[in-house]
């Protein structure tokens, strides 16, 4: 295995779209970033998505295609001084009319600035960038894991296009892991590749870092799942997102809420979060639970669950743990009623078994005179105690409290 001080993720970073894996909705044939790269027409943009899905890689490809100076800053450590130095390096001086600039031919007229974690810049720092983005001196590519609607000032955001990147799929991660294994000149056993893809939770960098660390520690010709587990040395490792412990824990969580055992529900919530479960997965299950198990007993539960999901989506960890806990206490403590869901699935069974029973004529729309002559819409009453079900089902009751 060849040693290199450079992280594996950096060593195998693709240089052009032909080697890029994932984000087909943005980089596939005819898609927006693909067209931008082909036409060398690069707008200022925000790349919004979870870690390790290709934001930095795409920014570098865009800079190469545009053939402009490329500056890579992190909003965690950079400030106005670094921004001012970049602008000054472009050699642009004010022209006779305010707002217009002419370029010093000895220096480049414009550049691409990749600003990682742009959500970390405060309002004053973002305001500083605004005039340079507006007049074209800076093509700004911001990367963020947070919703830009909340984290980027509206004046700047209105001058940028937002592209949303998705977590990498298991299949895409497996392709990237295979590429990493080739770079390390070792084999990754099938169960190890599966372990890595599930452990990464859509983040290629996480998978590659673990593979790289295991390769350095064990110097083996083939990396096994046991090598990866030993490398992690995590007490939470049994929580494999595709394995039995995952299903056991989410099952215990739902059943604890169903039984109104608030303490048990909070424990299983905490166990999932501590083990690295995606909080959006938990919040989605809470939205399902609100209608499936609480239903008509407390219709506000669905509003609460949806609000929790929205909060988890926009706030993220670690702060969204408060929202999850809030929602779990409410849902577990709420009265339970499964009548609405049960009624629907009874109706669904009849719909499947009985086929397309004729709709009663009085319920049919009558947009033409012929339809009216045939009796469509005749004797329709908005408010009636008569059954409106098709013949063969008349009088049947699905919903019972």
SSE inventory with pairings:
Layout: H1 8-11, H2 24-27, H3 32-39, E1 45-48, H4 55-66, E2 70-74, H5 80-89, E3 92-94, E4 101-103, E5 111-116, H6 123-134, E6 138-144, H7 148-151, H8 154-157, E7 161-164, H9 170-184, E8 187-188, H10 190-200, H11 204-218, E9 222-223, H12 225-232, H13 244-258, H14 262-274, H15 279-294, H16 300-315, H17 320-333, H18 339-354, H19 369-373
What does the model show?
By secondary structure, the chain is α/β, with parallel strands linked by helices. 50% of the residues lie in helices and 9% in strands. The strands form three sheets. It has a five-stranded parallel sheet with strand order 2-5-6-1-7, sandwiched between helices. The longest helix has 16 residues, at 279-294.
